[in-house]
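Late entry, evening session. Most of the bench is empty. Finally got around to the prediction I had been postponing all week. Sequence below, unchanged from the version circulated by S.P.
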Amino acid sequence: MNELPVILPALPEIFLACAAMALMMIGVFVRPQTAYRTVSNMAMLSLLATGGLVLYVGGGVQPALFDMFLVDDFAVFMKILILIGSLVALIMSDGYVQREKMDRFEFPVLVVLATLGMMMMVSANDLISLYIGLELQSLSLYVIAAFQRDSIRSTESGLKYFVLGALSSGLLLYGCSLVYGFSGTTQFPALAEALTGEGETSKGLIVGIVFLISGLAFKVSAVPFHMWTPDVYEGAPTPVTAFFAVAPKIAAMALFLRTMLGPFGELVADWSQVIWIVSVASMTLGALAAIAQTNIKRLMAYSSIGHIGYALMGLVAGNEEGLRSVLIYLAIYLIMNVGVFACILSMKIQNRMVEGIGDLAGLGKTNPMMALLLMVLMFAMAGIPPMLGFFGKFFVFMAALNAELYALAIVGAVTSVISAFYYLRIIKVMYFDEPVEPFDKIETIGLKGVMTVSGVLTALLFVYLPVITDPATAAAKSLFGG
């Protein structure tokens, strides 16, 4: 009788794990011609049902599985973002995977398994459960990156991601072992309690935290651990790139936030200096390296590095306001990014995918609706008001200023202005360059729907921002014990 409450907080993850196993069995036993369609639809339903269970289990503070797993308002907020990102990635991938002969049922199953790992990461309350969740996500992503087996680019991107990912996992695991060795525990509450005592913090523990930050920085593709991002974004199939750009990024940032502000919250003066450097380097590289790009997927890779730099500004603040600003930023980042990748997935000429920024020439004349949506999204990514992206940057900049991080805010403002150049260049190409061949008709209703909803929300959601800010405030309070 007493066992049910112990596992109830983990009910969404248990359901999703069972769903993934059931989908594998279904994929094997149904006809090969219909396997992908059946499993993909059922995977989407599973993700929707999991979202319902996440909301049903609710927030509060609910530990489970011998305190290795924790559900609170922060976990609920991040899990909903992850599930939306995964669901939208599956919806957008539909036409592409069938056209490119990638329609094997393993694809949606791997997305579901990666999502399961991300949800476990968000609720990790122990260094061991943190690592298990991280590896479950990573192993699935390694395979997805190289899923287009007949493409050299896809295979190469998968191999690069695997080799560098293994290195980062080693760094993270070494950091965990140092933290355990110098603190005597792997549990987050016990670590927090041990670090609140008087006296100087052990140098070995600080080194362990630096290794931990290095491993997590790789997962969010922050400088100097960003080297895999442009190659993997360009080489992986476009729906996979779209998936990589949203759900895994949000999950890794959630893990970053929970780890740094939870057990190591007392050592903020020690680790915030490292995050400060990482944030500045990410914003600077993201702004400068993207200027020379001609491939839109590589440009979005450097753009994502820059966005992670802005998000980390809130973490450097190390307080509740800073955390709230990061959560708002991540929710807005999700809305903008899925729209941009829906547009990229619609870049098709004579049934052939194109990725060059030059291929967008004259889009304002040949496809005015898509050009309008992409223009709105580019304005938002550049942080131009009143688009949604402006408010994301506004909250993190205010958190940095209120924490007296003036130099960081100045760097953020300067790099934001520089990065506006390459976003506005895309608008210039669409509206002022001579048209090239027109794009093919958008092939699926799902892709058209994602593009439209993202564009409308990006342009109009500023009218009622509390739909994002209120849950983010509750989530930030829960992580700080509010």
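Two things to note before I forget:
The radius of gyration is 21 Å.
The CA atoms of residues 247 and 358 lie 29 Å apart.
Will write this up properly tomorrow.
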